[in-house]
Automatic annotation (TrEMBL):
<dbReference type="GO" id="GO:0005737">
    <property type="term" value="C:cytoplasm"/>
</dbReference>
<dbReference type="InterPro" id="IPR050694">
    <property type="entry name" value="LRRC14/PRAME"/>
</dbReference>
<protein>
    <recommendedName>
        <fullName>Leucine-rich repeat-containing protein 14B</fullName>
    </recommendedName>
</protein>
<keyword id="KW-0677">Repeat</keyword>
<keyword id="KW-0433">Leucine-rich repeat</keyword>
<comment type="similarity">
    <text>Belongs to the PRAME family. LRRC14 subfamily.</text>
</comment>
<dbReference type="InterPro" id="IPR032675">
    <property type="entry name" value="LRR_dom_sf"/>
</dbReference>
Amino acid sequence: SAAMKSLQFISAEAFVSNAEFARKNLCGVARDLFPLLFKASYLLEQGEVIHDLVENWPLVDFNIGKLLGTTVDYQEDLSHRTCSVCLESCLTGLRDYVLNHPSSYVKRLKVVDLTGMKDVEVQFCRCKKTMGRWARTQLLSKLCLELLFCLQQRQCDPGIFEVSIDVLIELFVTDRNYELIVQALLKKSYCPLKICCVALRFDNLALQKFFYIIKLIDLSLLRKLEIVHNVRLEMEHLEILLNSIHFPLLTSLTLPARTFNVQRFTATDERMLNNIGEKMGEMMQLTELSVSFSILTGRIQKLLSPLKTPLKMLDVSNCSLNHADMVYLANSFHANHLEALDLSGHNIFDLYPSTFFKFLSHFSSVLRILTLEDCNIQDTHVNMLILGLSPCQKLQEFKFLGNPLSSQALKHLFTFLCELPMLKNVEFPVPRDCYPVGITYPIDDASLCRFDHQKYESVAEELKLILLQANREDVKASTPLFGSYDAAVQETKNELGAYLIKSFKETLEKFTTSLNKMS
């Protein structure tokens, strides 16, 4: 909004709004005005101006999150605009910064930080095309290789080889961009742009390729490692990984589904689990851990007790935790620090209600995000839930999809939720009375959409009215049937879809072959 712009910012917008004029006159612009002009160009999506600003960047660092975040001259935070035009112009500008002869200044740029971009569901940029984390990984790798090619092709100014710029990035590797990233990493020492990986996400990748990339990356800066979906990492592979590689700064770890399965445990597996727990404690400063869809019944202590740092985020959804696990959690040193907890897929109220609420009471003063999906929470449990949540005054997100609650119970719950001052986001289930009588929970995918949509809409309106009457329009309430928006999954869904179809086809072919053999 215009009200939030300083006079200086308005002047900057005027200057960059005519691209041709701005590009001609950049040489006369004072160094300390570059950040201001960059944000103004980004707001107006002036790709060519952005390119030239970065190509002639006169400062020691370029931190995109800070440049686009809240600034004195314009409070609006633009770091969630992952606009394709703007980001591509930024990165090609960076390549050309290395290649071109500066006319009026010495090249001073040492650090480029691309980690401040936030991938969100709704984009406000005019081009409506986003460049997500996967595409940013792809483009940076491509530009590093292009740069090397240019340096080989032409007789370059020897000064170029003295340029060394650390580029901090959150890499996202799948089978489709694997080859390109490997090439860029192999040639890293020759390239003036140094890829520095602070977060790493793997999806849809063979284990061999996963281990190869891990070997190529300098892990000394890595803070976050996510291994998800179609990476077949099992417990023995995790043990090899932890035994052979050090992660000195790692604070956040996400493991794929079925990494652990204690139902099939042998004595060797027990030893392996102990070793994994100890290694995680020794060499990581973990504050975030996600091990969803593993079977960890009775073993959560083995995994968590060796950790030296208290966890702030724990996702143990669908891990078949039992009463002993819940007792451990309630009494562990992690309990006082949890800001985000996901216990989805556990029948909390029937199995261990008092232990769960004891657990919750320890971190209720710091809790920001609570997810209890498919927990068989029923109408009779709502009062207990309200009692447990009352002290959670910092709660920002509460997700409880997939629970068999009636519209009456939801209204009762929403009336209470209005009182939580920091609440911003609620994901609530389709009321039980919108489904056919006799539906069983958890509801399978086939029946998920078979509810009375008209009735649902009218209940949803009533729930929103409860928020409205309590002056809580700031709370977003929704029912994303197939789970919350995930930018990374959204960006690679075509590749993942193709992978799933392929593996389904292979399974069918094997099945057909074995049938043929039988006949």
